[in-house]
Amino acid sequence: MPSVFTHEFNTPVYKGKVSFDTGLFINGQFVDGSDGTTIEYPDGKVITSISEGTSKDVDLAVDAAEKAFETTWGLNCPGNKRGLLLNKLAALMVEHTDELAALEALDNGKTFNIARHGDVSAAIDCIRYFAGWADKISGRVMETTEERFTYTRHEPIGVVGQIIPWNFPLIMFAWKIAPALATGNTVVLKPSEFTPLTAIRMCHLAQEAGFPPGVLNVVTGYGSTVGSAISSHMRIHKVAFTGSTVVGRKIMEAAAKSNLKNVTLELGGKSPNIIFDDADLEQAVHWAMLGVFFNQGQCCIAGSRIFVQEGIYDEFLKRFTEKSRSIKIGDPFAPDTFQGPQVSKIQYERIMDYIESGKKEGARIHIGGERHGSEGYFIQPTIFLDTRPDMRIVKEEIFGPVSVLIKFKDEDDVVRQANDTVYGLAAGVFTKDVNRAISTAHKLKAGTVWVNCYGMANPNTPFGGYKQSGIGREMGEYALANYTEVKAVNVNLGLKVM
């Protein structure tokens, strides 16, 4: 029998008890892994154990997903019914909002308040948005001749594999399953072994909502086993992944070497945040702080390269320093905490290694750069000055609360520096000059550009990157193309061959 996770929350922001199976979710049931092994995953201490999936379990999940696709889902289930089930799932999430937020905070280290008002709310909005698309997947009629009738159908691909990261577990779960299920596909999903709890809990809610067995399958386990099996599986015809560029390359290689499966990749970033002389300085400082330190800096879109025009550089640095020092670090369940611990010891050590490399390469730490407190994986918000473009802290994605402040002269100068990266996920521009804002936004090689804000997301807006930040777009109508095949049908209405 699968392990049961039971936890009593008795915190200032949430009080309640949770108890649910932590097995693999295959064919509508919670089951042990084929090898009967479990993963104990820690965040300074062991939270619980979860079933460990293997390639054999991925095979079983694919079997279930194929059967569901051919019988109870796909083109056998009308779009309005798929939309109804997705809306039921969203309604159950609303009922369990506090519980989901508490699980996300416990699992990931983000604060309960941010998880509740940010992550859970955004996940609900995403599922509702794609529920609305479920009965609106349509093709087109093409004008040819009166003797021919030509049209297209947008059909579901079939069984799709999805692999999600640990930084926004619930949001990424919603971003992946919602468009896939809305378009009629069945899903085999792997959550991160560091943060599996909300994905497992969502399976209970999907079961309660009434999704047919096999439509949604979740196999917990390690990337080297479960992730690899999904990426290379011959009966999975599409894989979607969010995570590092290094792992994205491996998934793309496995997809190519197996059955040349379709891939969507949302990968790393080293995003520039540009502050011009005429910006609203108070707002620019606030958004810049959120842009780099939100979620403990564990954001693919983090605006970690902050470019400040020389005329306001000193004043911006002064205010940004004050704002960064005011960040409350501590217990994710305290009402006034903004920054919790990093997700794991591995991530903590990786970030501290980047900080040490910055020092060794000659950058100057303005504030931070040290552990916060003596317990837990807390890192002080860090600002580096006097950097060079060839430094690791300027070039590479750190995924932690570390920023570099860089002075620039004019628009041409900053666009050149901002685009000098292998990534192209996001960027920010702060200016009161709308012409400058639009001109700069158009010159930046990034999939998303925010003007006078940072990090805002909506389910109807596409998200994805240029260059090594990924392939394809998630969210919005654009995401539907990731999960459909276009079939052209040509009907002869009277053409005779002699």
What are the defining features of this structure?
seven-stranded mixed β-sheet; 498 residues; single chain; six-stranded mixed β-sheet; 22% strand; 22 strands; globular; alpha/beta; 14 helices
Question: Could you give a short description of this structure?
Answer:
The protein has 14 helices and 22 strands. With 498 residues, it is of the alpha/beta class. The mean pLDDT is 96.
Helix and strand topology:
Blueprint: E1 4-10, E2 15-21, E3 24-26, E4 29-31, E5 38-42, E6 46-51, H1 55-71, H2 79-95, H3 97-108, H4 112-133, E7 141-142, E8 148-156, E9 159-163, H5 169-182, E10 186-190, H6 197-209, E11 216-218, H7 223-232, E12 238-242, H8 245-257, E13 262-266, E14 272-275, H9 281-293, E15 305-309, H10 313-325, H11 345-360, E16 364-367, E17 382-385, H12 392-395, E18 402-408, H13 411-418, E19 426-430, H14 434-443, E20 448-451, E21 470-471, E22 484-492
Parallel strand pairs: 9-10, 9-12, 10-11, 12-13, 14-15, 14-19, 15-18, 17-18, 19-20
Antiparallel strand pairs: 1-2, 3-4, 5-6, 7-8, 8-22, 13-21, 16-17
Describe the model:
This protein is of the alpha/beta class and 498 residues long. It has 14 helices and 22 strands. A seven-stranded mixed β-sheet has the order 16-17-18-15-14-19-20, sandwiched between helices. Helix content is 37%, strand content 22%. The chain has helices at 55-71, 79-95, 97-108, 112-133, 169-182, 197-209, 223-232, 245-257, 281-293, 313-325, 345-360, 392-395, 411-418, 434-443; strands at 4-10, 15-21, 24-26, 29-31, 38-42, 46-51, 141-142, 148-156, 159-163, 186-190, 216-218, 238-242, 262-266, 272-275, 305-309, 364-367, 382-385, 402-408, 426-430, 448-451, 470-471, 484-492. Helix 7 (223-232) packs across helix 8 and helix 9 (281-293) crosses helix 10 (313-325).
